[in-house]
Specification:
The complex is a heterodimer of chains A (about 230) and B (about 240). With about 230 residues, chain A is of the alpha/beta class. Chain A has a 10-stranded mixed sheet with strand order 4-3-2-1-5-8-10-11-12-13, with helices on both faces. In chain A, strands 7-6-9 form a 3-stranded mixed sheet, with no helix packed on it. The radius of gyration of chain A is 19 Å and the shape is globular. The termini of chain A are far apart. Chain B is an alpha/beta fold and about 240 residues long. Chain B has one domain: Glutaconate Coenzyme A-transferase (3-Layer(aba) Sandwich), CATH 3.40.1080. Chain B has a 7-stranded parallel sheet with strand order 4-3-2-1-8-11-13. In chain B, a hairpin with a 4-residue loop joins strand 9 and strand 10. The N and C termini of chain B lie far apart (about 35 Å). Classes of the chains: A alpha/beta (about 230), B alpha/beta (about 240). The interface between A and B is large, with 39 and 52 residues.
């Protein structure tokens, strides 16, 4: 009897899972907030709002009070989110047209948006709409309006690209979505505040060393954990 | 007597001429006036400039209008979606023009056009490729770019209820661009599921007052774009 050669073990994923990241972001959203969640990982935040906290979800195609996904067979093609997926409306929801929806965004009425990123620079510049490749079809949607108008922008993203390149960089090389717009970054490795003095790390995932984190980041980091502990 | 109802989609779009600017409502398939678009394909008008958030999916509706080579230029925010191949292929081949506009700027340009505002300043796109070359101005320490209002010759819109005055209600997130496109077009053409007698719609519930609407066509059961795409349908 022969045994198949053992496959090389897949390296264990390090740091937080996507649900962990979404839970951390949800914990930082105050009761009563109006929140816009971007397409992709940010959508997970809706599932991690702490019990007893009420937040109202906005979707820019015209609904305040987005509820959970409908049961199979209950989908309504005229009740969708910005990712064009079927959703429900909570009791107390409101529908409105696009000019009103973007008045909420641009007019500073939405408290927090949670978005994905291709790159975030140390000064808070964000690139999340185009890789700038010559054959790409340019498509922007509401990304530039959200970062220009929403009071606080959270980014929820893997720390590195699939090929291992840092997403947090000294200067964005992809086309920008907005200048100095990001407030806080949640990755699988750390939580990082964008402050005037630079990128301040407030939490690091279990099992991740400072040296690992610094090596996987393309911009200088300031350790803000000691100060937090000193204050406590 | 005022009666904005017309008998058919074909009659409603009969005067859409070559070279017209046409706003087409919808966010993805929600609110897309598919029967009016198909009537415009039958009408055959060419060299159109179309203002719409997306570029359609599959080979029906807006995608079919583009595939039929009737559109010279698209003004939109997100010209690719799942099952969207028609626009990307024509664009890569250099056979259709694109003016890419951030979604909120697109909405406000349409609203401003309908409200008689020729241009406005917005913070959206400052410092990005989409703000390049535009007039900038600083108000209270913040940079803004100048954007122009958009008008159109025609709008094609889907609503839910109408009366003969053209008063409209919409359904859920299918409202999206409908109300502002009705305001911005010289001739707005609306397909609705149901017609009521005047007074049959609560005046407090009317979303678009009839003054913004020129023609109404009743399509009781509009085709569902995603279902047609799943079935592999092609129009015509």
């Amino acid at each position: 009897m022969t045994t198949a050669p053992a496959k090389p073990a897949k390296p264990a994923a390090i740091g937080w899972t996507r649900d962990d990241m979404a839970r951390l972001a949800a914990l930082d959203i105050p009761d009563g907030s109006y929140v816009n969640l971007g397409i992709g990982i940010p959508e997970l935040v809706a599932q991690h709002v702490p019990a007893g906290r009420e937040i109202i979800l906005h979707t820019e195609n015209g609904l305040l009070g987005v509820g959970p996904a409908p049961a199979a067979g209950q989908e309504d093609p005229e009740l969708i989110n910005a990712g064009k997926k079927p959703v429900t409306a909570i009791p107390g929801a409101a529908f409105f047209h696009h000019a009103d929806s973007f008045s909420m965004i641009r007019g500073g009425h939405i408290d927090i948006c949670v978005l994905g990123a291709f790159q975030v620079a140390g000064n808070g510049d964000l690139a999340n709409w185009s890789t700038g490749e010559p054959d790409a079809i340019p498509a922007v949607g509401g990304a530039m309006d959200l970062v220009a108008g929403v009071k606080t922008v959270f980014i929820l993203t893997e720390h590195n690209t699939k090929s291992g390149a840092p997403k947090i960089v000294g200067k964005c090389t992809y086309p920008l979505t907005g200048l100095r717009v990001v407030g806080r970054i949640y990755t699988n490795l750390a939580v990082i505040d964008v402050r005037p003095e630079g990128l301040v790390v407030t939490a690091v995932a279990p099992g991740v060393s400072w040296e690992d984190l610094a090596a996987k980041t393309g911009a200088p980091l300031i350790d803000g954990r000691a100060k937090l502990q000193a204050k406590a | 007597m005022i009666n904005k109802r017309v008998g058919s989609a074909a009659e409603a779009v009969a005067d859409i001429h070559d070279g017209a600017t046409v706003m087409i409502g919808g966010f993805g398939e929600a609110g897309s006036p598919i029967e009016l678009i198909h009537a415009l394909i039958d009408r055959g008008s060419r060299d159109l400039t179309v203002v719409s958030n997306n570029t359609g999916s599959g080979h029906v509706g807006l995608a079919a209008l583009i595939e039929n080579k009737q559109v010279r230029k698209m003004i939109c925010s997100f010209p690719r979606t799942a099952n969207s191949t028609v626009f990307p292929e024509l664009y890569r081949a250099g056979n259709i023009e694109l003016e890419l506009v951030p979604q909120g700027t697109l909405a406000e340009r349409i609203r401003a056009g309908g409200a008689g505002i020729p241009a406005f300043y917005t913070p959206t796109a400052v410092g990005t490729q989409l703000g390049e070359g535009k007039e900038h101005r600083n108000f209270n320490g913040t940079e803004y770019v100048l954007e122009h209002g958009l008008r159109a010759d025609f709008a094609l819109v889907m609503a839910n209820l109408a009366d003969r005055y053209g008063n409209l209600t919409f359904n859920k997130t299918a409202r999206n661009f409908g109300p502002i496109m009705c305001m911005a077009a010289r001739t707005s053409i609306v397909q609705v599921r149901e017609m009521r007698e005047p007074g049959g719609i609560d005046p407090e519930a009317i979303v678009t007052p009839g003054i913004f609407v020129k023609r109404v066509v009743v399509i009781p059961e509009p085709a569902q774009e995603s279902q047609l795409v799943r079935e592999g349908a092609c129009y015509p």
